[in-house]
Design brief:
Pfam families: HEPPP_synt_1. This is Heptaprenyl diphosphate synthase. InterPro entries: HEPPP_synth_su1. By secondary structure, the protein is mainly α. The protein has a single domain, classed as Farnesyl Diphosphate Synthase (Orthogonal Bundle). Helix content is 72%, strand content 0%. The protein is built from 15 helices and no strands. The radius of gyration is 20 Å and the shape is globular.
Length: 287
């Protein structure tokens, strides 16, 4: 197995006391980065740069995700909220700038160009999704599809290298690993009822609820207790667990079809935490 230490390499860039004290940062894109690193490490022409490429891609992703967390309530004057907003802007810019610096330092100008193009495409896709959300012209299935497409864009920058190793399987495998991450995030949002507006649960309920419930949901007039009852009524968390179990099963089947070579075994290990997560007692309960 190739040695994976991207998370540790990224830590000096992302761990700052002031940022951690005053604001919340997005999760590290663990599955996507591990997948990218494993594939690039298997490519004889780029294996020497697999850590660099994986690191800079993770930093760009963190930068974009950090900017996405910035509150839309720009008039919020409360000190902590204002400072958190400012730090998210600065942190996102900083993480993104590190990728330019690291690649330029190593003379990898071509990768700068590839990732820059992917950033532009990601932003275009985000605008399309945000517009559909604003118009309430979106289904839960469309939300999943578009969110996966957005999250996968940066990693598609290495499509040429990856397809030399995995052939036509690469885009589908990337999408499946990305979907696992997305579903885990959506489960967390559903269980904590944190930032559920525009989540998978929001669109899932919107497709099924009564007209009165729909009006309250769209206008954001549900308190936590009523929101919890609505999520329970339409089995949001339960349905997400079902989706996660189905996608995990299909991904493992895809990886088994790759054979028993080193890369296939490594990719199976990457998704093992999902299987363990699904085997915990709470998954079998109808939440």
């Amino acid at each position: 197995m190739s040695s994976y230490r991207i998370t540790e390499m990224a830590r000096p860039y992302i761990e700052y006391d002031m940022i951690q004290t005053y604001t919340e940062l997005p999760d590290f894109p663990e599955f996507r980065v591990k997948l990218l690193h494993a594939v690039l490490s298997s490519h004889p022409a780029v294996s020497a740069n697999s850590e660099l490429y994986s690191l800079v891609t993770s930093l760009v992703q963190l930068g974009m995700d950090t900017h996405d967390m910035i509150s839309n309530h720009s008039m919020d004057k409360e000190f902590k909220a204002a400072r958190a907003r400012q730090l998210k802007v600065l942190a996102g810019d900083y993480y993104s700038s590190r990728f330019y610096h690291l690649l330029a330092q190593s003379g990898q100008i071509e990768i700068v160009s590839r990732l820059s193009e992917a950033i532009c495409e990601t932003n275009r896709l985000k605008m399309n999704l945000y517009l559909a959300m604003k118009q309430h012209n979106l289904t839960a299935e469309q939300y999943i599809h578009q969110s996966v497409e957005i999250r996968a864009q940066l990693f598609l920058s290495f499509k040429g290298y990856a397809q030399e190793i995995l052939g036509d399987r690469w885009p589908d495998l990337l999408n499946r690993f990305t979907l696992l991450e997305l579903l885990l995030d959506e489960i967390s949002r559903s269980e904590t009822l944190k930032e559920v507006g525009g989540s998978w649960g929001f669109w899932h309920v919107l497709e099924r609820c009564t007209n009165d419930e729909k009006k309250l949901l769209q206008e954001g007039e549900l308190d936590d207790a009523k929101l919890k009852n609505l999520w329970h009524k339409y089995k949001v968390t339960f349905e997400l667990y079902q989706l996660l179990a189905q996608q995990s099963k299909e991904l493992r089947a895809d990886l088994a079809a790759l054979g028993s070579d080193k890369l296939a075994r490594e990719l199976l290990i990457i998704c093992e935490p999902v299987q363990r997560y699904l085997e915990t007692p709470k998954v079998s309960e109808e939440i």
